[in-house]
Amino acid sequence: MTHILALDQGTTSSRAILFDGQMQVVAVAQQEFAQHFPASGWVEHVPDDLWQSTLESAHAVLTQAGLGARDVAAIGITNQRETTLVWDVETGQPIHNAIVWQDRRTADVCAALRTAGHEPMITARTGLLLDPYFSGTKLKWILDHVAGARARAKAGKLRFGTVDSYLIWKLTGGRSHLTDATNAARTLLYDIRKGRWSQTICDLLDIPVEMLPEVRDCASDFGVTDLLGAPVPILGVAGDQQAAAMGQACFRPGMMKSTYGTGCFALLNTGGTMVASQNRLLSTIACQLDGQVSYALEGSIFIAGAVVQWLRDGLGIIADAAEVQGLAMRADPAQDVTLVPAFTGLGAPYWRPDCRGAIYGLTRNSGPPELSRAALESVGFQTRDLLEAMQADWPVAARGADQTTLRVDGGMAASDWTMQFLADILGAPVDRPKVLETTALGVAWLAGMRAGVYPDQAEFAATWAAEARFTPTMAEPAREARYARWRAAVAATMSV
Ligand SMILES: Nc1ncnc2c1ncn2[C@@H]1O[C@H](COP(=O)(O)OP(=O)(O)O)[C@@H](O)[C@H]1O
Ligand SMILES: O=P(O)(O)OC[C@H](O)CO
After folding, report:
1. What are 74-91's pLDDT values in tens digits?
2. Binding residue numbers for ADP
3. Residue 368 and residue 308: Cα distance in Å, rounded?
4. How confident is the model at residue 41 (pLDDT cuts 50, 70, 90)?
5. Tell me, what's the pLDDT at 28?
6. 135-145 vs 107-115: helix axis angle to the nearest 10?
7. Distance between CA atoms of 408 and 120, rounded to whole angstroms?
8. Fewer CB within 10 A of the terminal residue: the chain, N end or C end?
9. Residue limits of the Carbohydrate kinase FGGY N-terminal domain (predicted)?
10. pLDDT at 485 over 80
């Protein structure tokens, strides 16, 4: 009974990661599922795909480890955030496909609300911006477009949830309709200062508050599942980026992490203070334990590892992501090719969904090596944009500790060359941890701590160890000249 099962329900796959009593990974199982694009800018998941791939991964990881549910002390759930589901309380049947965080269908609704002057009120309560990224307008869309949905919701017959809530509902056989504070903080409906659903925003969007889940601490009692062969409690829940920040032990104010998967999400812990961003970052909940909220500033970039996928699938100049750094290292140092990967617009701090990508500085000698280097560098430049905005919102000097180190994880953090460039362009150290499964580890720790098999926060933080530290080697004038060129390239791209 000392193992912890982490369920990581992501945008493209569901994973189950089994940890032993010493917080070491014992086995991993993963299942991909289909992405649906019913119209331009729309992205949907079939709810049953999310559920079945999660359940099957959970069974598979136990089989792989030769263990059963009786060996599992607790389950932790971490998930793609903002993705929106609505289901019937009697049948458990979703009334629409899940509308995924990437989906832009509510851009018009957001624009109309902004024009009507509602954004300052919404930002003050939720810490978020009026962007289709968040759940609130997606939920409104479902209530507006599925016949009879709003009346059924008002009659208490429908439930809303982000993916964590839906999985808890399914795992507990419909006994628990719950979420945690980090997921609630991404809905556009939750007042992160007061710690409760905002009646004002729900009224504005015509969303019945009764259909929203009860919000709990990240380490709490979320119900018991009987579906794995023996009863197992669900004791930890957190959105995937917040779980990664916990797995990176970014518990103290001033600590920050950046996760490089398909996109990049940087979180800076601001402690018990909600720092309201003046620079188009998001304010969000990093963690809630024993009713105590830690806040974070977050910067979200939509294209990070995806730029490497583009080199592979779009241009065909590499066969595998791992080849990109070898190619980048062969780039001609005399060329200065800059790639702005605004393939789906620009996220923080620009928030320009309409803008598209551009390449500058091409010569007749520019080829795959120069494009590869520019692609990897774009990830470093975008991270610097986020950290510049964080510095403007909350200067290092005011953070109470000189913590400029960035902790990194995610698939792209495997590239030493990219991480060295990141340190160079930030002018600050970059630490890569020994355990790269930081998202799963974060939520496993929440569940394991609650179950009494894992240590408390301080002891857990002390177990964090770096596998590699990248320190800046680029001279300051070169760093600033290169960054100035990037800023000019972004400005030019936004002006087209
Ligand atoms: N060695 C590498 N160098 C550069 N990018 C990489 C490397 N390995 C993986 N990636 C990129 O990392 C991403 C996968 O990271 P992962 O954390 O699994 O993402 P996600 O959870 O978003 O699916 C892909 O976009 C891939 O292109
Ligand atoms: O599923 P991921 O890892 O791409 O994460 C998605 C984020 O939670 C979206 O906000």
Report:
1. 999 999 999 999 999 999
2. 11, 15, 262, 305, 411
3. 12
4. confident
5. 97
6. 110
7. 32
8. C
9. 4-247
10. yes
- Give the CATH architecture of domain 3-240: 2-Layer Sandwich (3.30)
pLDDT confidence tier of residue 277, bands split at 50, 70 and 90: very high
Average pLDDT over residues 3-31: 96
Predicted local distance difference test score (pLDDT) of residue 324: 96
CA distances from 176 to 94, 233, 454 (A): 16, 12, 25
CA separation for the pair 369, 437 (Å, rounded) = 30
Ramachandran category for residue 316: left, alpha or beta (phi over 0 → left; psi -120 to 50 → alpha): left
Structure tokens at 375: 């692609």
Write down the pLDDT at residue 402.
Answer: 58
Are 105 and 133 in contact by the 8 Å Cβ rule? The answer is: no
Cβ 14 vs Cβ 54: under 8 Å: yes
Do 3-240 and 249-496 share a fold?
yes
- Render 444-481 in DSSP notation, one character per residue: HHHHHHHHTSS--HHHHHHT--EEEEE---S-HHHHHH
ipTM: 0.96
CB 78 within 8 A of CB 218: no
Mean pLDDT of 179-197: 98
Pocket test for ligand 2, best of 31, 77, 240, 436 (most atoms within 8 A of CB): 240
DSSP string over 89-127: TTT--BSSPEEPTT--TTHHHHHHHHHTT-HHHHHHHHS
Cα 263 to middle of ligand 1, angstroms: 9
What is the rounded distance in angstroms from the CA atom of residue 214 to the CA atom of residue 120?
26
Instruction: Specify the amino acid at residue 87.
Output: W
Q: How far apart are CA 155 and CA 157, in angstroms?
A: 6
Amino acid identity at 238: A
- pLDDT above 80 for 353: no
Which residue ranges make up each domain of the chain? 3-240, 249-496
* Ligand 2, atom 5: closest residue by C-alpha: 80
**In the structure, which protein residues have their CB atom closer than 6 angstroms to any atom of ligand 2?**
10-11, 80-82, 101, 239-241, 261-262
Percent of the chain past pLDDT 70, that is, above it, reads 100
What's the pLDDT at 484? 97
pLDDT attached to residue 401: 65
Q: What is the rounded end-to-end Cα distance, in angstroms, of the chain? A: 59
Q: What is the mean pLDDT of the chain?
A: 95
Residue 444: pLDDT band with limits 50, 70, 90? very high
Q: Residue 91: CB within 6 Å of ligand 1?
A: no
CATH class of 249-496: alpha beta
| Binding-site positions for ATP | 11-13, 262, 305, 309, 411
Torsion angle, alpha carbons of 410, 416, 422, 424, to 10:
160
pTM exceeds 0.90 for this model:
yes
